[in-house]
Amino acid sequence: MNVKDKVVVVTGGADGIGAALCRRFAREGAKAVIVVDRNGEGAKAVAAGIGGEAVTLDVSDGEAMAAMVADIEARHGGIDLFCSNAGIGDGDPEKDNAASSPDAVWQRAWNVNVMAHVHAARAAIPGMRARGGGYILNTVSAAGLLSQIGGAVYSTTKHAAVGFAESLAITHGDQGIKVSILCPQGVDTAMLRQGDAASQPQNLDGVLTPDEVAESVVQGLAEEKFLILPHPVVLTYMQRKTGDYDRWLGGMRRLRAKMMGG
Ligand SMILES: NC(=O)c1ccc[n+]([C@@H]2O[C@H](COP(=O)([O-])OP(=O)(O)OC[C@H]3O[C@@H](n4cnc5c(N)ncnc54)[C@H](O)[C@@H]3O)[C@@H](O)[C@H]2O)c1
């Protein structure tokens, strides 16, 4: 897909990767860019800079998502590209206990990192099917394909997000719906800067700027590839993982030990 003259929605558009996507899509000549975020002021600032529209919304609220999609469809005639990008990350509170996050943290991450993709697809796909096609881009993470050391909640919910995107592609591919997942490693955003994230191993392969990720997205959308990997080495790691799971786990354990200074 080329986003020129397209109606594009980006959740988590107030900051980081989402804001870079909004700006890039506007530069590519999108007809409308709708910047969606729970941070309404941030969404308005990004929208103002690109002549877009801002919507204040919590992506974990399925009813609000459905109402927003209906409103955009009524005003613009349809959504061509829905980027479900908002996500949250929490590290394990006890570094030597993968089950240490409280249930409330697991639930919140499930609601944002997984259910928001479900809400978006449920709301956007009927209109796309009726119009003969559309594109869903879900921001996941390399942590959904490999794993994030010290981030069991993040890794697990991002793996689930990959699973849902596969189901979307398999179920709706023959209905003209294109699906891609965006799976970067480290990207220089507020999320990466929080906590001890700066020392994470996913940053060893280089931290990209949000603009560099947006460039990968524009290329990936043009190629209509399922897997968009701004850090291409992630594909090598995936191949190593599926080639010999136990060996890969051993490597991850060694990396973890190194990170912990042990
Ligand atoms: N930064 C990285 O290193 C990195 C790497 C891989 C994947 N990702 C993924 O990229 C996506 C964007 O992350 P980012 O790094 O730009 O983070 P960010 O924190 O800079 O931006 C995330 C945006 O999402 C919004 N948001 C969060 N929860 C929301 C909710 N419930 N409803 C509406 N908006 C909400 C925030 O207000 C913020 O504007 C996430 O899905 C993240 O998991 C980030």
UniProtKB/TrEMBL annotation:
It comes from the Bacteria. InterPro entries: NAD(P)-bd_dom_sf (IPR036291), Sc_DH/Rdtase_CS (IPR020904), SDR_fam (IPR002347). Belongs to the short-chain dehydrogenases/reductases (SDR) family. This is Short-chain dehydrogenase. The keyword Magnesium does not apply. Keywords: Oxidoreductase. It comes from Phenylobacterium kunshanense. PANTHER family: BLL7251 PROTEIN (PTHR43391:SF26), RETINOL DEHYDROGENASE-RELATED (PTHR43391). PROSITE patterns: ADH_SHORT (PS00061). Pfam families: adh_short. GO terms for molecular function: oxidoreductase activity.
